């Protein structure tokens, strides 16, 4: 275990830029939003100061409307190293999209590792503005759920759940993909899908980052993490001796959780909903398991049953498959269409612990640690064989391994 922790620490040191950590040196040479939050969970055990710096750097790029952009670009990285880069987004040093809001939980964890009231007081109003933006500015369906306007905002970019909402988007052409220079084409999104991503991003940019466009989806994973983030923010408010604010955050969490169950729960699972059509998207993906992180989730027993059933076989495969193992489109190696990702496994383990599933959580933890070390801290793995895919020396894989070993 000491060897595994040491190797993970080396990965994080190698990807550290001085004020933030890149997910990987080649494929992802900038700072990503939810990556940095996951990285902070691990860094807090190695260097709480670095973990604080990671999060403070990210929030230094927060927009005036409260959103936390999904990429903060490193000015020392050549423009041709990544597409779409800052020139595409026309938003200064950031992109205009967001990613799942796990930051409040990360801030709380970093503070608990080494209490720092100034750090907490600095980030609390920023976190509050971030959540307010999501709960109000992104409530496209009027049901109290935050909508994503691009697959990249889910963090699960190439999920089969996005195929139907994307089907009417005309792909862009004429751009150069940089991701294929660092990864196998069979592991990455198709050219047609990538073209749709670029088209959506272009249209959103040209709208001034204000309008809901052709892709408007309520994602169960995103909203479950928002509800949990409000619970974390309530704990932060209590530490800062703001009892009225703490109560408001708990009420906000309860509203999101209620809307989540009333809107996205059907037949024993949580599904994404296409706001434009009003229909649930009948794809069983790992996003539908993330509501397990909510400690008071009434349907948790049924969701655990779904996780351990034939579609995901939790505890009998490596990690948590990103897509239904029985689906015709299941692909064990292609980005979010079947492989297991370490951040999802880590989140599902948190949920299992919160609902008393300690034995299953322990099996998942042991598998995640062993697989991470064996694959050289791969970006994601084949859930059936455990073979590594994507880039190696991936930061959140290393960071969450450190956390699991702590």
UniProtKB/TrEMBL annotation:
One annotated GO biological process: protein N-linked glycosylation
GO molecular function, one term: Glc3Man9GlcNAc2 oligosaccharide glucosidase activity
Keywords: Glycosidase, Hydrolase
Top-rank lineage group of the source organism: Bacteria
Mannosylglycerate hydrolase MGH1-like glycoside hydrolase domain residues: 28-397
InterPro entries: 6-hairpin_glycosidase_sf (IPR008928), 6hp_glycosidase-like_sf (IPR012341), Glycoside_hydrolase_63 (IPR004888), MGH1-like_GH (IPR054491)
Record family assignment: Belongs to the glycosyl hydrolase 63 family.
Name of this protein: Mannosylglycerate hydrolase MGH1-like glycoside hydrolase domain-containing protein
Organism: Amycolatopsis vancoresmycina DSM 44592
